[in-house]
Every structure is written in C-alpha cells, then in structure tokens.
Amino acid sequence: MAELRAHLTGLGYSDVRTLLQSGNAVFTAPQAPTADVAQAIEATLATAYGRDLKVMVRTADEMRTVIDANPLNVEHPSRFLVTFYARPVDAALLADIDTEAWQPDEMAVGGREIYFNLPRGIAEAKLPLLVDRALKVTGTARNWNTVTKLLAIADEG
Q1: Domain residues for 78?
Q2: Per residue in 35-85, pLDDT tens?
Q3: 55 in a domain, yes or no?
Q4: Three-class SS state of 92
C-alpha cells in the first residue's frame, strides 16, 4: 500500500490514505472528472507493473450516495457486496438472470453499482459470477464494511 500511496502522490494527489491491504485509497485530487482520474491512475499502474489494472474512482459524495441508495437490508456487512463499475450498469443485460432461483441471495442494480446481499457467504455465492458473465465488463467488489470505512476515511480528511 505504500507503493500505491507513492504512485498517487506522484500524480499530484494529496491527503493520500489507504485502507489496510485492500487496494483502496482515499485522496484529494484536483477538480477533474472521476473517469479522467481513473485513467491517470491506470496509466501510472500499467507503467509501474507492466499490466493493465482497472481502477474505479468515486468522490466522497458519490460514495455517500452509494450507501444511502442501498435498497437491500445489510444483516451481515461482511456478506454484503457492492460491485462498482466504470459506467452505468445496463440492467437489460441482466434480464435473463432468475434471481429468485438463487435466494436467499439477492441483488439490486443502482447506477454504476450492483448491491449483493449474500447471507450464505461470499465464497459460496453464484449470483455475482452470473452477473459478471452477463455484463462482460470489469467491476470491482467491496464488502459493506469496506464501503462504509472508505467513506468514513474521506469524511475525516
């Protein structure tokens, strides 16, 4: 995580903080669209590590909206995922997934995120895999504990 902080600082971002060894960082960037910030970080990481790594960037306000817009009940934060995507989720691509067949697991689409309540645990969950195959785009999932901690870190700064 020290390397990630160094890369972000090298891009001119300030107040760089990371969360454990999760690959997540909170920082202050000059006013720019989040897509541009993500692209700059991806380019820096590609140069540093010789491979393409997808980066999802959300502002503190966007993270707050993700949390506030959650339509599902969070009984076990470690078994609740939010998958973040770079672009809005095309819900039509998910129409063929019979979510009732996977209960008690459940999901909800919201903007550039998909929420998953996975009461049997993340390791056993099939619904997120089906969604990934249907969407054919790269997303990154974080459990509810991580999502809320990231916003708390952003609010501290």
Answers
A1: 71-143
A2: 999 999 999 999 999 999 999 999 999 999 999 999 999 999 999 999 999
A3: no
A4: helix
Number of domains in the chain: 2
Instruction: Return d(Cα 36, Cα 117) in angstroms, integer.
Output: 31
Q: Answer whether residue 65 is part of any domain.
A: no
What pLDDT is stored for residue 21 in this prediction?
A: 83
Q: Are 116 and 81 in contact (CB under 8 A)?
A: yes
Exposure b/e, 14-52, CB count within 10 A at least 16 = b? eebbbbeeeebbbbebeeeebeebbebbeebbeeeeeee
- Is pLDDT at 157 greater than 80 in this prediction? no
Q: Is 155 domain-assigned?
A: no
Those residues whose C-beta lies under 8 Å from the C-beta of residue 86, and which sit 6 or more positions away, are: 35, 38, 54, 56, 112, 137, 138
pLDDT, tens digit, 9 for 90 and up, residues 97-145: 999 999 999 999 999 999 999 999 999 899 999 999 999 998 999 999 9
Distance (Å, rounded) from C-alpha 62 to C-alpha 97?
27
In a shared domain, residues 33 and 76: no
Tell me the whole-structure pTM to 2 decimals: 0.92
